[in-house]
Amino acid sequence: MLNPTKTDCITILSAASQLAGDSMLPLDHGRLGLSRNGMLAAAAFLVERACFRRYQEGDGHYAVGALSLQGRLRLDQLSNG
Fold first, then answer.
1. pTM given for the model
2. Residue at 28 is within a domain
3. Per-residue pLDDT tens for 61-81?
4. Local structure of residue 8 (DSSP, 8 states)
Protein backbone atom coordinates (compact mmCIF):
# COMPACT_ATOMS: atom_id res chain seq x y z
CA MET A 1 0.00 0.00 0.00
CA LEU A 2 1.15 3.52 -0.70
CA ASN A 3 2.06 5.86 2.11
CA PRO A 4 -0.58 8.56 2.49
CA THR A 5 0.35 12.19 2.18
CA LYS A 6 0.11 14.56 5.11
CA THR A 7 -2.37 16.69 3.14
CA ASP A 8 -4.69 13.74 2.42
CA CYS A 9 -4.71 12.76 6.11
CA ILE A 10 -5.40 16.33 7.22
CA THR A 11 -8.27 16.61 4.73
CA ILE A 12 -10.00 13.48 6.00
CA LEU A 13 -9.38 14.26 9.67
CA SER A 14 -10.61 17.84 9.25
CA ALA A 15 -13.80 16.69 7.56
CA ALA A 16 -14.43 14.11 10.29
CA SER A 17 -13.76 16.67 13.02
CA GLN A 18 -16.95 18.49 11.97
CA LEU A 19 -19.17 15.47 12.71
CA ALA A 20 -21.43 15.45 15.72
CA GLY A 21 -22.77 12.51 17.68
CA ASP A 22 -23.20 9.28 15.75
CA SER A 23 -23.01 10.88 12.29
CA MET A 24 -21.00 9.11 9.62
CA LEU A 25 -19.04 10.77 6.84
CA PRO A 26 -18.96 8.78 3.59
CA LEU A 27 -15.50 9.29 2.15
CA ASP A 28 -15.92 10.40 -1.45
CA HIS A 29 -12.68 11.40 -3.13
CA GLY A 30 -14.49 13.84 -5.45
CA ARG A 31 -16.16 15.72 -2.60
CA LEU A 32 -12.95 15.81 -0.58
CA GLY A 33 -10.83 16.92 -3.53
CA LEU A 34 -8.47 13.94 -3.28
CA SER A 35 -7.36 11.31 -5.73
CA ARG A 36 -9.08 7.96 -5.23
CA ASN A 37 -5.83 6.16 -4.42
CA GLY A 38 -4.70 8.94 -2.08
CA MET A 39 -8.00 8.91 -0.22
CA LEU A 40 -8.01 5.12 0.15
CA ALA A 41 -4.41 5.06 1.39
CA ALA A 42 -5.07 7.85 3.91
CA ALA A 43 -8.35 6.28 5.10
CA ALA A 44 -6.73 2.88 5.66
CA PHE A 45 -3.77 4.51 7.44
CA LEU A 46 -6.03 6.51 9.76
CA VAL A 47 -8.41 3.62 10.48
CA GLU A 48 -5.47 1.36 11.40
CA ARG A 49 -4.36 4.00 13.89
CA ALA A 50 -7.80 4.24 15.56
CA CYS A 51 -8.38 7.88 14.58
CA PHE A 52 -12.18 7.50 14.42
CA ARG A 53 -14.72 6.44 17.02
CA ARG A 54 -16.19 4.10 14.42
CA TYR A 55 -15.92 3.31 10.73
CA GLN A 56 -17.48 1.17 8.04
CA GLU A 57 -15.69 -0.34 5.07
CA GLY A 58 -17.13 -2.28 2.19
CA ASP A 59 -16.20 -2.79 -1.45
CA GLY A 60 -13.39 -0.24 -1.16
CA HIS A 61 -15.68 2.47 0.25
CA TYR A 62 -15.18 3.98 3.68
CA ALA A 63 -17.45 5.92 6.02
CA VAL A 64 -16.00 7.30 9.23
CA GLY A 65 -17.45 8.68 12.42
CA ALA A 66 -16.27 11.45 14.68
CA LEU A 67 -12.63 11.67 15.70
CA SER A 68 -11.34 9.67 18.62
CA LEU A 69 -8.83 11.20 21.02
CA GLN A 70 -6.09 9.64 18.88
CA GLY A 71 -7.61 11.28 15.79
CA ARG A 72 -7.74 14.72 17.41
CA LEU A 73 -4.13 14.36 18.53
CA ARG A 74 -3.03 13.23 15.06
CA LEU A 75 -4.87 16.13 13.40
CA ASP A 76 -3.18 18.58 15.74
CA GLN A 77 0.20 16.94 15.16
CA LEU A 78 -0.14 16.96 11.36
CA SER A 79 -1.52 20.50 11.23
CA ASN A 80 1.03 22.05 13.56
CA GLY A 81 4.02 19.76 13.14
1. 0.92
2. yes
3. 889 999 999 999 999 999 998
4. H
